[in-house]
Amino acid sequence: MHAEKNPIVLIPVSFTITVDDDFTERVVKYEREDSLNNEDHDGLGKSITQHCKSYVFILQDGENRGQKLRIIDTPGIGDTEGLNQDDKNMQHVLSYINNLTHLNAICILLKPNNSRLTVFFRSRFIQLIDMLGENICDRIIFCFTNSRSKFYTPGNTGPLIKALLNSSPAKRIRFAKENTFCFDSESFRYLVAKLNRIKFNSMEEAEYNRSWEKSSAESNHLIGYIRSNMADPIILNESHSVKHAQLMANSMIRPMLEAMR
């Protein structure tokens, strides 16, 4: 496998893997020096990505060959440090978006085994759509990670997303097979583990190879979907700046009131 010897890893990764018959835990890492300060892999439950950061990929396959794909990695929602940290993360994301000239797509990353969507996720999702305006509704893409155990489907999370969209002002957002993509990172973890000299048997390698082929094909499908349906960018205008200023002002009210008590 070419990727095994020459991985292109722009975003640093770190995870724990069990090895040997006694299930010894080993921390596996692969990272670039210029990305170290943007990732926190030591805080359990914390958002690993600390700040928004842009990564540019030079596409290598088929009709996409030579084209640039810019992905903006953002902090997640549901930080264990509490609502205040989530507020800060969300404000940071909105500030970063506010400085962009345009967007082509927004990918919402989820896991397929959620039994419920938190109230905070629902409110932040609606807040994001409200700030960017209705034009962004046609540019929402749903990406499900860790999906092999659910046969590469949205799993239990699918009905929750449908209910969220049906009950929210953003009813224009589609949740359909065309804009939904399912991956699993286990094959990538396998490659990173191999680089860390961890051994696998032939049966495990065959499983990871199949997983790689499935997720790789789905990734190409995602890129093709964006190129075909979202090539014309959404231009971010002054109304977004006004809404962002309102959000910033609202976020300041609570701490100011608490300080006055």
From TrEMBL:
InterPro entries, from UniProt? P-loop_NTPase
Q: Which residues form a coiled coil?
A: none
Tell me which domain of life the UniProt entry assigns to the organism this sequence originates from.
Eukaryota
Q: SUPFAM superfamilies of this UniProt entry?
A: P-loop containing nucleoside triphosphate hydrolases (SSF52540)
- Which stretch is the leader sequence? none
Protein name, per record: AIG1-type G domain-containing protein
Organism expressing this protein natively: Rotaria magnacalcarata
Q: What is the lineage of its organism?
A: Eukaryota, Metazoa, Spiralia, Gnathifera, Rotifera
